[in-house]
Amino acid sequence: MHPEDPRTVWEDVPAGDLQLRIRRPPSAEDLLDEDEFADDERLPYWAEVWPSGRVLCGVLAGMDLTGRTVIELGAGIGTGAMVAAMRGARALSTDWYEAAVEFSRWNARNLGLDMSATVMDWRDPPAQVLAGAPYDLVVGADILYEARNGEALGVLIPALCGPATEVIIADPRRPDARAFVDGMQAAGWGYRREDLPVPGRIDETGAIVHVHRFTPPARKHNEPVVI
Ligand SMILES: C[S@@+](CC[C@H](N)C(=O)[O-])C[C@H]1O[C@@H](n2cnc3c(N)ncnc32)[C@H](O)[C@@H]1O
Fold first, then answer.
1. Looking at domain 50-215, what is its CATH homologous superfamily?
2. Which of 34, 43, 115, 154 can bridge 225 by disulfide, Cβ–Cβ 3.0-4.6 Å?
3. Ligand 1 pocket check for 122: Cβ under 6 Å
4. Residue of the nearest CA to atom 8 in ligand 1?
5. Is the CB of 96 under 6 A from ligand 1?
6. What is the per-residue pLDDT across 162-180, written as a single tens digit (0 to 9) for each?
C-alpha cells in the first residue's frame, strides 16, 4: 500500500509536549502475506504505532538531541526517529520492510523533517549503516518480542556502538526480552530500567512499558553479545 492510498488513515501520536500526525495503513492484518510468512515468518507489524513506540517517542521528546546521531531499529513507520529529528538529531529510521521505510520517508517529509530511512534486516545490516557507526544513540521499541530478535540484536547493537553510545529499548514486558537484558548484563554492559505508563490507547500488553537503557562496557563495546 502506498502512503497516499485513500485507504490509509491518519493517527495522532503523542510525544511528551510534541504531537505527530502520521499516515499509516488501516490495519496490519490487511497486509498479511502468506508467502512472506512462509519464507521468513515475517509479519507486517510495522504498520501500526505500538504502545511502547509511543513511550519511546515520549522519552526522546524529553531529550535534547542537537547534533547527535540516532538510529532507530525495527522502526516501523519511524515515529521514534521523527521525534529525534524534531529534537535536533541526525536521525535514521530502519526496518526490514520496504513499505515501512516508504511510509517513514513519506511521513517525515510531510512533517517537514530532515530524516533518513533505509531498509535493514538486523541479521544482514547494509555497509552504509555500519559505516555510520558509532551512533550516539541506538533506539528501538517493541523489538524484543521473539528469541531470534534478541539473538540478532546482540550481534548488531555492539557493531553500531562506540564507548559513549547510549542504547534505549522500550519493551512492553515481552517474555523474550529477559534473555536479551541478561545477556547484555553478563557481557558487562551497564544497565538500568525505568517503568513508564503508556500514553493513550492500551492493548493486551498492558499499561506499563519497560524502558531498558544500556551503556557499553569500557573496552569491549564492539564485541557481539551471545544471547
Ligand atoms: C512490534 S513492531 C514495532 C514497530 C515500532 N518500533 C513501534 O513500536 O511502533 C516490530 C518491528 O520490528 C521490525 N523487525 C522485526 N524483525 C526485524 C529484523 N530482523 N530486521 C529489521 N526489522 C525487524 C518489524 O518489521 C516491525 O516494524
1. Vaccinia Virus protein VP39 (3.40.50.150)
2. 154
3. yes
4. 53
5. yes
6. 999 999 999 999 999 999 9
